[in-house]
């Protein structure tokens, strides 16, 4: 319903537009006083809130209040003003005419004065005089951003020249365009300073000069800043302008950076877009960035750019040091354009959970030659353990290595780093420590160089004739000094808990020699001095002393030392002792939190009573009702007030504060009172969008839109003013506030144009008026089409869609409204497009297909039977972008009650917000089908008895927010699903994790069980078997466990009678369930078989038995172990191994008491296949385990061996032989059953006469017989274990092949020579003992191709044939030496030399002749004694041997191992093969038989022909 208001012209208030614009503040107060607020009862509350406001920006006007007397007086005053309205207009016109006349006369007067001045100059040129100020400068005090003008009048002949100075420096207007303007009109000189700032405060002077002299006039200009200016939001941290820069550009800021949040180690950019006129690409505006009133410079930590319509600051390496208030200042033609916002930087995740945050603000002070003082600020520790100390690290320039300076954590936020190297540069950082670990390091300090500052003080610079600088050292003035003077002023500069810093003045004179110091200490009251820096050569006049006893007072003295000697000791210092432990400030005082914005709170507190060198404060907060505190700032804040940003709108918080100094954090302050995050109370902004909805010739119906900002409280009234469009006087329409945004205004004159303006009122008062509406003609509407729709609003604004809603037109036309069409246009465009081709009958429309981030405007047209009506007023632009944190409506079922509901958690809320629910965008009132409940930021709509009538689209709007809203369409399928879930909750069933099942236990018992998700102690249940309930008894045990939810029944004797159906019925509170198991047929037979097996197993385990039957393992040396585990054994228990019923007796007796038995099977191969059996027995019983090694089991064992052998395989080794080139791969064990594949150039090699493949237990080999160039290339061996393939390769090409081939040819030739050389193949003994007068025959078999030559020697002299000695060589095969009737002279060393062109052999025989009756000589070479041969045998000659291997039978033969060198040349040694030495041990070869003579060189054993491959 539109409100009806009758206009009473006698009570209207008269004001002109001129008066309104020039007395705006007075008019606002009068308007406020003229309104009657419906919220008068809140005046006292508002007064208290006003006192609590800390920021002067929150100005709350007084309410509009009137008494009866005041109303009468006001009525009379208004009536008088109505009569005087015309007089006021006439007076204004008269004043304007008079002002115009005065201006014309002034211009004429100026022209006349100018002409007179010219005449005066002409007539006075003959009078010469110096300048003189007729009117001197006068001082000025002005406010900031206002102009000031300095004027003076000077005369003199000739005409003086006037120059202006600021603080003695000439003023140059070109250096700051637009800042200064110098004038000279009619002898009056002026300096105009536009938009003064504080830095313009100075003494200004005007100096007039002509040839006869000069004159000066001075005045002081003081620029003041208004109290509280800019402090409401910036807390007084906006940097003051310190310098004026030239600029001719006009700059207007557009999008500005807001309060920002970053994390350590991340990056962030702050940017402002702007419009620059003129926009010159090569001349961007001059910009400056500040942090906490300190000018920033571009560098590695701060990147700055300006151009392209934006100024940007990028912080690429964020640290908590970067937290603070950032200000962008742009110099413009009219002064400066500025914007400020706070940046918060939070801690990065710590290296260890619970570790503290990184320290802040590490800096190096008091830099000396070997000493630097590092200071920092402690981090904010909220939920972490208390900080126990800090570690200081240093890094030398040019290095990235950090070195820890202190062994034990230091508790104070200062640490003297000593032991530095003079002339080197360092950086420092700090890490905090607590019981949980060490923090991340702080940001490193600026680089400092360790230099002695006293050296620069010893230099003096003297200027000669103003041109030359002469540097004089103090050494030159002191003369030649050897022994330095004593240092002076020794004192304790800093006293801390863990150390004392000493400081003194270097000696004077000190001499030119390098100087160092010795520091001594003694207890106060004693004279026992003790040197401190025994291991440190100290060069700086500062030194930290650490090893002081707590509570003791010490005195100190210092001695200067150089290469000439030591000075006298300095005067002792005053007694000093280590500082106290607790130096933290006291806790801050009362903390007060007040409303600021919808996401921030203003917090202020009283400073601590004992600040103790306070460095700042940390502010913490927590959500009301919780115990977890979180930090609001991460860098100590210096002032006692702070704006906490980033809070959840509508949430309630509590705050506390801690003071910070170098000793740490103080105790927490008392907590503030809980406060809800709401905007501060203020008057509402102006309504807008005034539109006419209907007119009948004497009244109009108006509608308007709500203010953009309600001021933190509900709008409870609107006040309307009107005026005739041809007049300037406004009249009140309503004395009583209108509560709706629709109002009918009566008593209007038909045909007259009217203008309207509207004010909104809330608890804080009446807000500013809206802009006047467009003139509206009071003329009756008679068209047949409907009037405009109105009150366009938006809901569910998202990135690609929104919902537009509107209200029906007040004027319907000649027929009822039948539908609506919606039109849309992009912001800035006048081309509207129709969204719905067919009119909709409801008053809402969902618009889709929008571009995210784009702004749109909408309007609506109504339709009736007569046509389309006029469009509504265009909406305000709406951006297609969802609010941050937007949540959608959630449909669900309550887990406790089973109620079906829709719920929304608002991303923001205010104190005055309400949740307005709608169905199909029609508000849901008191409807019995639903119930709405709201708690905090969550609202829930619950259906009482949901059915198909509840289907539809539900939406909710949160009032007094930036458009928080959501919707959900309830479909039939979704409702049915939720109804089923609701039924399940309201008619609960005991949920089961596992249904009824069975398991067979040991002894053959069978257990039936099921498991519920949860059981209460009051649960009841029944067990039914074959339709009969069973209970616990002797053979049946039934039980349950509430904790695990298990119900079980155990049958001790499971027989064929137990076949059937088993059921368990459970009743737990309201919930019920049952589970059944059918155990019949094959399922029952399997269960019965398993039960019988377990029963037998139980009986078996009563005696000795196998707990684990036979299985195999393979050791690292590839030995196969057949293992088993036994149990229930005793000493008398026997254990036997069998293979195919043949007993195996292991080398190590079996120890059954160990519980584990194993049989090793070394060198495993196919021969080991078969059935192995282990038998365990004693008087209690017997148990047997069989293991069949065949088929897959055999393959598994071979694969297990191959896995170990393949992993141990060496690289391929090349070995040359007389038959060819061999490639060998050594491994821990090899057998031909292993899956090995040789490849040549990726082609598989099969064993053949050309390519032989074989191996030994230690290696696998492949030999290339009679190699040629075709066999060049890459060779590899692949050893497969069934899962993995181990590959080893060798490249036999290039030089490797050439060297190998040459070695093969050499070995082949050597083997041929060895085969065909001359040699003795048998028949000769080593030692012969013979009696005198006997005949001796030495006969042997020889071999050689060609037939060798044979020579006999005695004592290295060749034996000649004669009657006594006869040499024979028969058939090229048998060689003999016959000595007839031996004599003692025949004793000696005999030898035979058999040789041909391929070589030969030298074999030696020792012959001993003794006389009859003499004792038989001792045998040689350790041979046993041999009796004398019978005479008959001695005279006979030994026959030739029948085979080469059988030696000749000679009298008393004794083997001899002695040999003699052959007269033939010695053969060269065999060269080694060019292949590398194998990694694995060389294959073992049989021990060769000792050589009986020197042979020609033969190839080593490992080079002999390979054994043929196994078949």
Jot down its keywords.
1511 residues; mainly beta; 7-stranded mixed beta sheet; extended
What this model shows, in words?
It is a single chain. The protein is mainly beta. Helices cover about 10% and strands about 40% of the residues. It is built from twelve helices and 102 strands. The strands form 25 sheets. Strands 93, 95, 96, 99, 100, 101 and 102 form a seven-stranded mixed beta sheet that branches. The two termini are about 115 Å apart.
Produce the secondary structure layout:
Layout: E1 3-5, H1 17-22, H2 24-34, H3 43-52, H4 68-124, E2 129-135, E3 140-143, E4 148-157, E5 161-166, E6 169-170, E7 180-185, E8 188-193, E9 202-210, E10 213-224, H5 231-234, E11 250-253, E12 260-263, E13 268-277, E14 287-291, E15 294-295, E16 303-307, E17 310-315, E18 324-332, E19 335-346, E20 360-365, E21 371-377, E22 387-396, E23 403-404, E24 414-418, E25 425-434, E26 437-438, E27 448-449, H6 453-457, E28 459-464, E29 468-473, H7 474-478, E30 488-495, E31 500-505, E32 516-523, E33 530-531, E34 542-545, E35 554-562, E36 565-566, E37 591-597, E38 600-605, E39 616-623, E40 630-631, E41 641-644, E42 652-661, E43 664-665, E44 675-676, E45 688-695, E46 700-705, E47 717-724, E48 731-732, E49 742-745, E50 753-762, E51 765-766, E52 776-777, E53 790-795, E54 802-807, E55 817-826, E56 833-834, E57 844-847, E58 855-864, E59 867-868, E60 878-879, E61 890-893, E62 900-905, E63 915-919, E64 922-923, E65 930-935, E66 938-943, E67 952-958, E68 965-970, H8 972-986, E69 992-1000, E70 1006-1012, E71 1020-1025, E72 1028-1030, ...
Parallel strand pairs: 1-49, 3-10, 12-19, 93-100
Antiparallel strand pairs: 2-4, 4-8, 5-6, 5-9, 7-8, 9-10, 11-13, 13-17, 14-15, 14-18, 16-17, 18-19, 20-21, 21-24, 22-23, 22-25, 25-26, 25-27, 28-29, 30-31, 31-34, 32-33, 32-35, 35-36, 37-38, 38-41, 39-40, 39-42, 42-43, 42-44, 45-46, 46-49, 47-48, 47-50, 50-51, 50-52, 53-54, 54-57, 55-56, 55-58, ...
């Amino acid at each position: 319903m539109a409100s009806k208001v009758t206009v009473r012209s006698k009570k209207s208030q008269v004001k002109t537009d001129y008066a309104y614009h020039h007395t705006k503040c007075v008019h606002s107060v009068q308007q406020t006083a003229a309104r009657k607020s419906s919220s008068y009862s809140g005046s006292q509350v508002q007064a208290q809130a006003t006192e609590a406001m800390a920021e002067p920006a929150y100005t709350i006007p007084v309410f509009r209040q009137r008494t009866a007397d005041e109303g009468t007086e006001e009525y009379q005053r208004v009536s008088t003003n109505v009569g005087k309205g015309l007089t006021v207009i006439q007076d204004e016109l008269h004043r304007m005419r008079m002002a115009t006349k005065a201006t014309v006369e002034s211009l004429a007067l100026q022209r006349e004065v100018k002409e007179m001045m010219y005449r005066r100059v002409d007539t006075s040129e003959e009078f010469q005089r110096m300048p003189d100020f007729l009117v001197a400068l006068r001082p000025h005090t002005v406010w900031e951003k206002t102009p000031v003008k300095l004027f003076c009048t000077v005369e003199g002949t000739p005409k003086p020249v006037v120059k202006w100075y600021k603080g003695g420096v000439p003023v140059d207007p070109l250096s700051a365009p637009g800042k200064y303007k110098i004038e000279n009109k009619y002898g009056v000189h002026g300096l105009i300073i536009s938009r003064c700032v504080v830095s313009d405060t100075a003494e200004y002077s005007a100096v007039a000069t002509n040839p006869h002299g000069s004159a000066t006039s001075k005045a002081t200009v003081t620029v003041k800043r208004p109290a509280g200016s800019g402090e409401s939001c910036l807390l007084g941290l906006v940097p003051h302008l310190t310098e004026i820069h030239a600029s001719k550009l006009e700059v207007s800021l557009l999008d500005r950076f807001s309060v920002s949040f970053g994390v350590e180690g991340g990056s962030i950019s702050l940017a402002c877009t702007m419009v620059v006129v003129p926009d010159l690409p090569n001349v961007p505006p001059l910009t400056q960035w500040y942090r906490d009133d300190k000018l920033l410079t571009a560098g590695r930590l701060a990147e700055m750019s300006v151009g392209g319509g934006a100024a940007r600051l990028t912080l690429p390496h964020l640290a908590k040091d970067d937290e603070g208030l950032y200000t962008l200042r742009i110099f413009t033609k009219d002064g400066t354009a500025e914007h400020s916002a706070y940046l918060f930087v939070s801690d990065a995740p710590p290296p260890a959970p619970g570790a503290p945050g990184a320290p802040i603000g590490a800096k190096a002070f008091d830099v000396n030659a070997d000493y630097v003082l590092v200071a920092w600020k402690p981090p904010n520790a909220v939920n972490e353990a208390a900080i126990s100390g800090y570690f200081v690290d240093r890094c030398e320039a040019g290095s990235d290595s950090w070195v820890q300076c202190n062994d034990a954590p230091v508790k104070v936020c200062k640490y003297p780093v000593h032991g530095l190297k003079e002339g080197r540069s360092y950086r420092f950082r700090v890490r905090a420590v607590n019981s949980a670990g060490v923090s991340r390091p702080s940001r490193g300090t600026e680089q400092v160089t360790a230099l002695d500052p006293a050296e620069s003080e010893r230099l003096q610079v003297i200027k000669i004739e103003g041109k030359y600088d002469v540097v004089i050292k103090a050494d030159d003035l002191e003369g030649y000094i050897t022994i330095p003077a004593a240092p002076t002023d020794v004192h304790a500069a800093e006293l801390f808990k863990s150390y004392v810093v000493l400081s003194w003045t270097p000696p004077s004179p000190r001499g030119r020699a390098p100087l160092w110091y010795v520091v001594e200490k003694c207890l106060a009251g004693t004279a026992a001095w003790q040197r401190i820096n025994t291991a440190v050569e100290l060069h700086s006049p500062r030194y930290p002393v650490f090893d002081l006893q707590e509570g003791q007072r010490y005195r100190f003295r210092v001695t200067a030392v150089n290469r000439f000697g030591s000075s006298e000791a300095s005067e002792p210092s005053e007694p000093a002792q280590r500082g106290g432990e607790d130096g933290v400030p006291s806790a801050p005082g009362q903390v007060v939190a007040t409303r600021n914005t919808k996401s921030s709170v203003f917090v202020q507190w009283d400073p601590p009573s004992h600040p103790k060198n306070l460095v700042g404060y940390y502010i913490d907060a927590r959500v009301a009702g919780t115990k977890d505190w979180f930090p609001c700032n991460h860098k100590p804040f210096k002032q006692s007030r702070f704006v906490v940003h980033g809070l959840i709108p509508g949430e309630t918080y509590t705050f506390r504060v801690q003071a910070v100094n170098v000793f740490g954090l103080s105790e927490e302050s008392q907590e503030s009172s809980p406060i809800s995050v709401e905007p501060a109370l203020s008057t509402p902004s102006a309504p807008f969008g005034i539109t006419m909805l209907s007119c009948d010739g004497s009244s109009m119906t108006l509608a308007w839109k709500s203010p953009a900002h309600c001021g933190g409280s509900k709008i409870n009234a609107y006040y309307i003013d009107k005026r005739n469009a041809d007049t300037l006087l406004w009249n009140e329409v309503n004395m009583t506030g209108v509560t709706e945004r629709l109002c009918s205004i009566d008593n209007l004159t038909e045909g007259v144009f009217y203008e309207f303006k509207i004010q909104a009122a809330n608890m804080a008062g009446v807000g500013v008026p809206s802009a006047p509406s467009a003139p509206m003609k009071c003329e009756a509407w008679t068209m047949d089409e409907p009037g405009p729709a109105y009150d366009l609003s938006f809901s569910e604004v998202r990135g690609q869609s929104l919902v537009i809603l509107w209200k029906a037109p007040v004027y319907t036309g000649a027929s009822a409204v039948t539908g609506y069409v919606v039109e849309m246009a992009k912001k800035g465009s006048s081309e509207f497009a129709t969204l719905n081709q067919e009119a909709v009958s409801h008053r809402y429309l969902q618009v889709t297909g929008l571009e995210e981030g784009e702004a749109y405007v909408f309007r609506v047209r109504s339709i009736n039977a007569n046509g389309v009506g006029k469009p509504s007023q265009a909406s305000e632009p709406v951006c297609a972008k969802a609010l941050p944190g937007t949540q959608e409506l959630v449909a669900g079922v309550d887990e406790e009650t089973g109620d079906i509901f829709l719920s929304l958690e608002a991303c923001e809320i205010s104190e005055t917000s309400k949740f307005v629910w709608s169905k199909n965008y029609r508000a849901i009132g008191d409807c019995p089908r639903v119930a709405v409940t709201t708690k905090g930021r969550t609202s829930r709509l619950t259906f009482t008895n949901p059915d198909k009538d509840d289907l539809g689209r539900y939406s909710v709007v949160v009032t007094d927010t930036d458009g928080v809203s959501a919707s959900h369409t309830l479909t039939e399928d979704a409702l049915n699903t939720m109804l089923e879930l609701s039924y399940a909750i309201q008619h609960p069933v005991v949920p089961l994790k596992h249904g009824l099942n069975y398991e067979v236990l040991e002894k053959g018992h069978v257990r039936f069980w099921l498991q519920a998700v949860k059981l209460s102690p009051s649960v009841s249940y029944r067990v039914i078997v074959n339709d009969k309930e069973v209970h616990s008894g002797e053979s049946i045990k039934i039980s349950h466990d509430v904790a695990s939810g298990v119900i079980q029944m155990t049958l001790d004797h499971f027989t064929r009678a137990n076949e059937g159906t088993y059921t368990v019925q459970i009743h737990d509170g309201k919930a019920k369930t049952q589970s059944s198991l059918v155990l019949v047929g094959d399922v029952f037979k399997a269960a019965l078989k398993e039960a019988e097996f377990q029963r037998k197993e139980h009986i078996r385990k009563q005696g000795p038995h196998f707990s684990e039957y036979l299985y195999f393992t393979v050791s690292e040396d590839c030995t196969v172990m057949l293992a088993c585990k036994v149990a229930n054994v005793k000493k008398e228990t026997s254990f036997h191994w069998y293979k195919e019923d043949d007993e195996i007796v292991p080398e190590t007796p079996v120890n059954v008491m160990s519980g584990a038995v194993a049989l090793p099977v070394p060198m495993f191969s196919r021969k080991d296949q078969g059935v192995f059996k282990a038998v365990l027995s004693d008087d209690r019983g017997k148990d047997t385990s069989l293991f069949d090694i065949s088929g897959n089991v055999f393959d598994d064992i071979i694969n297990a061996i191959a896995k170990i052998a393949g992993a141990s395989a060496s690289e391929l080794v090349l070995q040359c032989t007389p038959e060819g080139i061999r490639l060998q791969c050594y491994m821990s064990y090899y057998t031909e059953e292993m899956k090995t594949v040789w490849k040549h150039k990726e082609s598989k090699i099969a064993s053949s006469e050309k390519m032989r493949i074989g191996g030994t237990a230690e290696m696998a080999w492949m030999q290339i017989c009679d190699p040629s160039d075709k066999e060049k290339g890459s060779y590899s061996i692949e050893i497969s274990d069934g899962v993995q393939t181990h590959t080893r390769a060798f490249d036999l090409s290039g030089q490797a092949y050439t060297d190998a081939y040459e070695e093969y040819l050499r070995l082949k030739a050597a083997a041929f020579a060895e085969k065909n050389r001359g040699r003795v193949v048998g028949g000769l003994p080593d030692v012969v003992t013979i009696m005198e007068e006997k005949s001796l025959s030495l006969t042997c078999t020889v071999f050689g191709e060609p037939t060798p030559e044979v020579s006999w020697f005695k004592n290295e002299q060749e034996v000649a044939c004669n009657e006594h000695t006869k040499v024979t060589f028969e058939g090229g095969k048998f060689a003999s030496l016959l000595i007839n009737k031996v004599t003692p002279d025949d004793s000696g060393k005999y030898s035979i030399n058999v040789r041909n062109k391929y070589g030969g052999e030298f074999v030696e025989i020792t012959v001993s002749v003794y006389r009859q009756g003499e004792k038989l000589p001792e045998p040689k070479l350790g041979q046993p004694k041999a009796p004398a041969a019978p005479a008959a045998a001695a005279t006979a000659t030994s026959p030739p041997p029948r085979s080469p291997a059988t030696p000749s039978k000679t009298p008393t033969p004794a083997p001899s191992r002695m040999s003699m060198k052959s007269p033939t040349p010695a053969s060269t040694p065999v060269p080694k093969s060019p292949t590398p030495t194998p990694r694995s041990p060389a294959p073992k070869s049989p021990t060769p038989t000792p050589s009986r003579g020197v042979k020609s060189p033969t190839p080593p054993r490992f080079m002999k022909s390979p054994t043929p491959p196994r078949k």
